[in-house]
Amino acid sequence: MKLKLLGLTLIGMLALSGCDRIDPDSPLGKRKAIYQQMLDVKEDMGGMLRGRLAFDGDAFAAGAVRLDDLSRQPWQHYPAVKEEQSDAREDVWQREARFNELARALEQQTAALVALTSEQPVTAEKVAPAFQQVEDACETCHKEFRAY
């Protein structure tokens, strides 16, 4: 009897734990996946510049290309109305022109980083300021539009 009750309790907990999951095929799920990929790439690149990882110019340049590609993708996955589970502030939809302006600024910074990494040699000293501008563009948008 106790085992049966424990089993039912566990099944109930598992069922409830799945209720707050985000559908990976939803607009929110798609853009969260893109943002996570951006973060992963950015963390590796930042790790190279901050000494956590050995600097590899070719890997850094490849990361810049990947980051530039990713920086152009999440915007198409913002629906006309905010989803309930979104971390974005209502301002994304109320101040759409500003949001789009910051999205284009990020794209410009990632493109500038790619252009810089196409010039050999790719050194940490050469790319660090441009990478910081990419990080600053991310932070500016997060401060205005992400609900923490």
TrEMBL record:
Q: Which UniProt keywords apply?
A: Electron transport, Heme, Iron, Metal-binding, Transport
Task: List the InterPro entries.
Answer: Cyt_c/b562, Cyt_c_II, Cyt_c_prime
Q: Write down the Gene3D superfamilies for this protein, in alphabetical order.
A: Cytochrome c/b562 (1.20.120.10)
Q: Which Pfam families would you find in this protein's record?
A: Cytochrom_C_2
Protein name per UniProt = Cytochrome c
Q: Which organism is it from?
A: Stutzerimonas nitrititolerans
